[in-house]
Amino acid sequence: MTPGQWHDAVREAELEHFRATHRYCGRCGAPAEPASEKSVRCTKCGEEVFPRLNPATVVLVTRGEEALLVHARNFSRPMYALVAGFVETAESLEECVAREVMEETSLKIRDIRYFGSQSWPFPSQLMVAFTAKYDSGELEFADGELTSGGWFSREKPPLLPTPPSLSRQLIDAWIEGKLR
Ligand SMILES: [Zn+2]
Q1: Mean pLDDT in the chain?
Q2: Residues around the ion ligand 1 (C-beta < 5 A)
Q3: CA of 48 to the centre of ligand 1 (A)
């Protein structure tokens, strides 16, 4: 699938999901109807609503030549991936990255830098990827979301998420030595 085809397929699926979940006005409860190709409007109070995205972050944390890969309780395969999580209200993307890493692994990180982003329509997510460096702390999976993980070398990576996820692109960039 080309990036253009992916874009069109995501857009179509997302707009269908949006229309199916916005049949009534969130303000007054009256029925809503399509107002444009990508919005609906309340038939009573006129409130117009557009599709909303839920931003989430993923981060590749490195410590020297090694990177932090983790296994989450909800993974259906014995694979290792990156620390990830949804951005919370009032948070910047960088704050989200630092909080997720602290909550899930008890590690403090520094040098948080943007890597790339990807529409992830399952549903309505926008994945934003970052790199960061280990700062301090001992690895501990305190909050129960992650069950295991550790520092892996490029030469011996564990089973990884399948392409074309942004997580996998970021891990591949690290394995191929393409990160700064
Ligand atoms: Zn209304």
Answers
A1: 93
A2: 25, 27-28, 30, 42, 44-45, 47
A3: 9
